[in-house]
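Q: Hi! Curious about what Aspartokinase looks like structurally. Here's the sequence.
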Amino acid sequence: MSRPFVVLKFGGSSLATVDRIRNVAVRVKNDYLDRGLKVSVVVSAMGKTTDGLIDLAQRTSNVLNGRELDQLLVTGEQQSAALLAMAIEELGFRVKSFNGAQAGISATGYHMEGRIADVNPERVLSWLEGEGEVAVVTGFQGINEAGDFVTLGRGGSDLSAVALAVALKSSFCHIYTDVDGVYTADPKIVSTARKLTYISYEECIEMAALGAKVLQARSVEFASLYDMPIYVSSSILEGEGTWVKEKTIKEGLAIKAVVHDKNIAKIAVLGVPDVPGIAAGLFSKLADRGVGVEMIIQSVMRGDVNDIAFLVKETLLGEAIEVCGDYAREIDAQGVTYDAEVGRVSIVGVGLSLHPEIPAEMFSVLSGEGINIDMISSTSNSITCVISSSMIDRAVSALHRHFLEGEK
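A: Let's find out. The predicted structure is below.
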């Protein structure tokens, strides 16, 4: 049974200045407090604070310890939480701020890429069920068994908000962003992109994982596990946003969006001996360094060797090259190549695998634009092509025209 309060989340751009923090306080008042609801507000760091703190750390030391970085990064959200609490209190409401530990958010895993282990928000709940009207909670952070802060990865405040909404038995989680919903493509690239009124968890997870920036993929996955509806809308503009919730029962093809990601790089380990355990060794070493990989492709064996190619986040390219280079020498592979000038473009929609004509149409559209495809992967809900990053905008526009605007 849901409780009569709701969890809200505001991102860094919504909190970038004192004026914007005051505007957020007024938004919380107008949208929810004036309706008699009690509210928990999850916040990100102000503006580009997290990037600034990382830059500060890099200028201070060439040896970046994950634990110490996390102890530094959590201060950004704590700053936002305290300032927003002050702004809300000035409007006449009873409010307290809580950091991740105080809010009962437990985390495990690597520093800077932690995962939520549990949420036990006793202090938040006690405050809201008692005299409190608003609890402001820091996003992006939890505390591990050693009592150290662990951050939850980029976009982790979305995950914090959804997890808190589940723990507090809120009826839904309202995520305010600098855009007014989820679109069929990036409106900065495709002026005719349409805002979606509704999208399923399944489709939204796919979009987020493939590069859409509105929501963190892990937060939508968490919401789907606990059937927590998410409402995405603008923190500045009025108007309807987008609901992310369980899909309705409907047969047929519905391509929802064209998604792109320019922040990736391709790595290939060449001439890998074709013996059992080689791939396991490579990806274990990458995992040990906290390097996540995507779209793994092993070539057809030639002789007794093959090539293994995959994608990594552009920010992890240097680390991945080092790991792959060391391993290539260890197994006597032929070498390692990489390409940082690539991006990926994807079409997303439930049931794509049931429509064999769709891949052919996608490849034909890209060919018609003179775009060469480097790598291809597909799931039941998406088809993704890796292409030159310089061709991404053209590819997104052409695919949107073909699949979502009816231009055949």
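A: A fun detail: The CA atoms of residues 3 and 170 lie 6 Å apart.
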